[in-house]
Design a protein that fits this description.
By secondary structure, the chain is of the alpha+beta class. It is built from 7 helices and 25 strands.
Length: about 525
Amino acid sequence: MAQGDPTTGRAPARRTVLRGTAVAGAALSLPLLGAAAPAQAWRGRPSADWGVQAGDVTTSSGLVWVRSDRPARMMVETAATEAFRNPRRWHGPLVGPDTDFTGRTALHGLPPGQQIHYRVTLADPDDPRRTSRPVHGTFRTAPERRRDVRFLWSGDLAGQGWGINPDRGGYPIFDQMRRLDPDFFLNSGDTIYADSPIQERVELPGGGVWRNVTTEEKSKVAETLAEFRGNFRYNLLDQKLRRFNAQVPSIVQWDDHEVLNNWYPGEILDDDRYTVKDVSTLAARSLRAFSEYFPLGTLPPKDEDGRVYRVVRHGPLLDVFVLDMRSYRNANSPGRTPDDRQGILGERQLRWLKRELSHSRATWKVIASDMPLGLVVPDGKTDFEAVAQGDPGAPLGRELQIAELLRHIKHHRITGTVWFTTDVHYTCAQRYDPAKAAFKDFEPFWEFVSGPLNAGGFAALKLDGTFGPDQKFVKAPTRANTPPTEDGQYFGQVDIDGSTGELTVRLREESGAVLFTQVLQPGRVGQ
């Protein structure tokens, strides 16, 4: 990627191409947000007012998502231009109440490194001539040869009661991210806050009122499948997010708030807000809704195991290894055991990750972690939620799995691993150095943290010295749960230069301002 103003690093052709899509996206304001009634000609036909999304895009494939307002047959057309001359047609599923009227269509045999324009139409299953207004989207397939790559990452949306505020224009951060024209968005988890009800008004600490768009499903903690589905629908009420989804494909993972704060499998709740106390039951309902509302290829019905963890290959320069540090972890604890094979990943996922990293030939191997490695994230007074537990000595508890992974990366000479995460509601960058660590059998690497997208900001956490983190940058509030009106909303940008392979990370705030920049060279470690 050529240096200069990173907001103008893309050719203007795509902006021209997207102009029609942006207009179409603007027309998708939902009734709750004051949209005009649809034209008479479209009444009684299916509609797709929740927009479209694409996900897990590779050199030749991608998944397209839509939601109907009634039973309908999903149809997708793709073309090289927005004029849709000689389109290719894809027959999608019949969507209905079993999937909350959502559907996904897999596209295969796409040309590599090309702009793909698509439009989704919903047809009445009893009368195929009665179709919806088409909804447009676009994405770039991954390149087959070396080419500039740009992606963004962040997470944490509608947390701590800070929802869609019409006074701020909804979720403004998505417009800032869209203008950077990334190849994809890595959504690092907490895609919803199922445990955070949204109230109509919230008193601000310094005076004034935060107003929220509200829905019935967001008025309490989510327990039923319908309530989890309503949480995912809530965010799609925001026009800026729908416009972003139509123009930027995603790679999505989950963390805790898709179910509830700091959950682990087998947990039994002691929380008066919940009538369902078995967290595994809640997690199963959330995973079903998650699989319905995002375009992921490894979730049901395609993958019977329902895996969130997977690798998405983006040409010769980049593989993205998406982790799931939630579904297979052991119970949160003080984390001091000298033997812990289950850890935070589970044995099967750890074997998969080591195998896939060893097989990867990509220049850069991004490890998309839903939790940080060296930041000490507490869970109550004695337990810990992430990997680190505050003891700077030899690895214990969940740190043992990470030590095993880092040792594997070193001994198999796997270069180009970089960690990206969100979770903690501030932004920072740390370099892990064996010379400063209690555990030394690894090569240096970087971890970058950014978020939230629209949630409360929180103070910086302590670092655990087991893996020798050296924090190069941090920006965080000084108190807990600062509202988005006090800034503290962040996302990250990654650019890979197609000719040199150089990788540049920029930590940005909601306004788009760059707070920190780090350049990494290919084939090296610990720069």
